[in-house]
Specification:
582 residues, alpha/beta, 16% helix, 31% strand, 6-stranded antiparallel β-sheet, 10 helices
């Protein structure tokens, strides 16, 4: 593979002037059975490079465990990119932001109450060094210097928005080099943060979505020579629950792209194809109010969530063609979709009644956090006995992030972090009644100082001003529902799993619509599609074709509140991402 060089005039590839035309494509947000399709479409839009982050928290779910199987087979992704004739920009973090759970930082770091993330805290740096060694040492053959597709590797991610410790960045750069990374390194920051996030001797790049000429001028002021590059050219945006679906006009984005390329700069679209926050992997923001990100990461990108070209695909390809050759092949057509159908969910299993089959309770004087329980995603069920009968005021110091309360299995109310709620009136029908609290991790904060985001019930729990002690904490990661005893009897009053099946002759993409349901998560054939919530804007979940199989397919819906009265869901040919705003 050709080698990327950086000189005062810009990029060269094997001695020839070179412009990076790249697009974001996160392998971990795309079913691995669809990687080749998405990479082919990147080439057809005129891109010569793809960019991907690496999610530390998925690859290393525990300190002594490192995964590269299935959807985490990054080597296979790199092989497929190379086979398509694409170069790769690799962004291993350790912090990636990406609207991803915890910005990609593994939750087990937070089991240490004093740790300081993204700093020179020795505990953090030791973990990062170990991660880099496990990830990058086996990937050395994929570097361009060894004939692979990886042209350059990023140091950290938008660090200037978080801190200004150049020694921290220097440590990361040295650690990358120790792992054999001998291709160019680069940093990326928004224009106002360039001075804080840059590292001497490392290429600085900028992130923005508008005023391209101004952004490049600010980068040039910070870095007088060398290539100009926008590492995140924001051509869309992400959504949060309770908002509208954010879109960006294709013509406006194309004009900005034209302005950017006219400066001679290289570009990486953020995103070329967004994909999906499958399972519980979405992140959140907390700028004085906690706001979790939705399941879809469609991002109003050139390829939509199902990998179909959008108006932006053609608009961007037309602009790129003014500056570089583009393939003569036509714009790819929309992929096949499953025929619409309604699926009845005929079996149910109450979550509270089945909790023992889903996780093992741990006793302690106070509720334990998810991190103390060694848990990444999902729920924790806390239980204790109420010492006396009658009404009382329950106060919780911190709810992270949404708590449902039950007294002897009867729903008693909800407290939400997002609404800054801390107190709830409960009534015990008898002394010794069981107080159950089901707490959902709705996504760890992925940006700013809030990344130190521990989950569960934190701090004191008071009942009429008295400390409540004697708790059990039961982790419910919900990675396996095979032990649930589904029955066709009456629907349980509280949170419940609902199961149904449907038949397919030829698997194809689909969108699962959950009209009439309130809040919860969905699995098809054991694959976690993600969360749904009636508050929107998203009202459908993407079902990748490789998740389905010829013959019988199983749907499991965890509904946390009142489910659809008829207990049905619908598979349709198109998504419903909600009312839009630009």
């Amino acid at each position: 593979m050709p080698l990327l060089q950086i000189d005062d005039g810009g990029f060269t590839l094997d001695g020839e002037p070179f412009r990076l035309l790249s697009g974001g494509l996160h392998y971990f947000r795309v079913h691995p059975g669809q990687w080749a399709d998405r990479l082919r479409k990147a080439r057809l839009m005129g891109l010569n490079t793809v960019e991907t982050y690496v999610p530390w928290n998925l690859h290393q779910p525990r300190p002594g465990e490192f995964r590269t199987d299935g959807g985490l087979d990054i080597a296979r992704f790199l092989d497929l990119a190379a086979a398509e004739g694409l170069h790769v920009l690799l962004r291993p973090g350790p912090y990636i932001c990406a609207e991803w759970e915890g910005g990609g930082l593994p939750s087990w770091l937070l089991a240490d109450p004093g740790i300081r993330l993204r700093t020179r805290d020795p505990r953090f740096l030791a973990a990062v060094d170990d991660y880099f060694d496990r990830l990058l040492t086996p990937l050395r053959s994929y570097l361009a210097t060894r004939g692979g597709p990886v042209l350059a590797v990023q140091v950290e991610n938008e660090y200037g928005a978080f801190g200004d410790d150049s020694a921290y960045l220097e440590h990361l750069a040295d650690s990358l080099r120790r792992c054999g990374v001998d291709v160019p390194l680069f940093t990326c920051d928004q224009p106002d943060d360039l001075a804080r996030g840059s590292l001497p001797g490392v290429l600085a790049t900028a992130n923005f979505g508008s005023r391209s000429a101004q952004g490049m001028a600010e980068l040039r002021a910070q870095q007088p020579t060398g290539p100009l590059m926008c590492t995140e050219f924001w051509i869309g945006w992400f959504d949060r629950w309770g908002s509208r679906h954010v879109i960006r006009n294709a013509d406006d984005a194309a004009r900005e792209l034209d302005e950017l390329l006219a400066t001679g700069a290289s570009v990486n679209f953020y995103m070329f194809h967004g994909g999906t926050n499958f399972g519980f992997t979405n992140g959140a923001n907390d700028k004085h109010t906690y706001r979790p990100t939705v399941t879809s990461y469609d991002y109003d990108a050139p390829l939509d969530e199902a990998g179909d070209p959008t108006e932006k695909f053609t608009a961007f390809r037309d602009v790129i063609a003014k500056y570089a050759p583009v393939p003569a092949e036509p714009v790819p057509p929309r992929g096949p979709k499953l025929a619409p159908r309604t699926v009845a969910l005929t079996g149910s299993a109450g979550l509270l009644e089945c909790a023992k089959a889903l996780g093992t309770a741990v006793g302690a004087p106070r509720p334990l956090t998810m991190e103390q329980l060694g848990q990444d995603f999902g729920f924790v069920l806390y239980e204790t006995a109420l010492v006396s009968a009658g009404p009382a005021l329950l106060e919780v110091e911190q709810v992270r992030d949404r708590a449902q309360f039950f007294v002897d299995g009867v729903p008693a109310g909800v407290l939400e972090r997002e609404s800054h709620e801390h107190a709830l009136a409960v009534t015990a029908p008898r002394a010794g009644a069981t107080l159950s609290v089901l707490v959902e991790n709705q996504g760890r904060v992925n940006y700013g100082p809030g990344i130190h985001d521990r989950k569960g019930l934190l701090g004191e729990v008071l009942l009429d001003g008295d400390d409540v002690t004697g708790w059990t904490s039961r982790p419910l990661p919900l990675t396996d529902q095979s032990a649930l005893p589904f029955t066709a009897g009456p629907v349980p009053a509280g949170p419940a799993f609902h199961r149904g099946t449907f038949e397919t002759d030829v698997p194809a993409d689909a969108f699962l619509h959950l009209e009439g349901w309130t809040k919860g998560s969905v699995w098809i054939n054991g694959f976690a599609l993600g969360r749904y919530w009636s508050r929107g804007p998203q009202h459908s979940l993407y079902v990748p074709a490789p998740v389905l199989r010829t013959g019988t397919n199983e749907i499991v819906v965890l509904e946390l509140h009142a489910g659809h009265r008829a207990r049905t869901v619908e598979l349709r040919e198109s998504a419903e991402l909600g009312p839009t705003e630009e």
